[in-house]
């Protein structure tokens, strides 16, 4: 046990080195983007965002409808016209 934690330090150093190398590859080097051109990636991402926006709008409309259905009808009374 004369080596101490040298093995652990070397492992951490190697992991950091590999992470830095992966960062330098950019978007094209990521696993999800393999084999796609920039235009294809942009179209894919735009489609995903469009779907997210549609879901968010549907959820917002559903919540507004539920709130309107649960809201009590309050009539304003003008005390001067009584």
Automatic annotation (TrEMBL):
<feature type="domain" description="Small EDRK-rich factor-like N-terminal">
    <location>
        <begin position="1"/>
        <end position="42"/>
    </location>
</feature>
<feature type="region of interest" description="Disordered">
    <location>
        <begin position="1"/>
        <end position="41"/>
    </location>
</feature>
<dbReference type="InterPro" id="IPR040211">
    <property type="entry name" value="SERF1/2-like"/>
</dbReference>
<dbReference type="InterPro" id="IPR007513">
    <property type="entry name" value="SERF-like_N"/>
</dbReference>
<dbReference type="GO" id="GO:0005829">
    <property type="term" value="C:cytosol"/>
</dbReference>
<protein>
    <submittedName>
        <fullName>4F5 domain-containing protein</fullName>
    </submittedName>
</protein>
<feature type="compositionally biased region" description="Basic and acidic residues">
    <location>
        <begin position="1"/>
        <end position="23"/>
    </location>
</feature>
<dbReference type="Pfam" id="PF04419">
    <property type="entry name" value="SERF-like_N"/>
</dbReference>
<comment type="similarity">
    <text>Belongs to the SERF family.</text>
</comment>
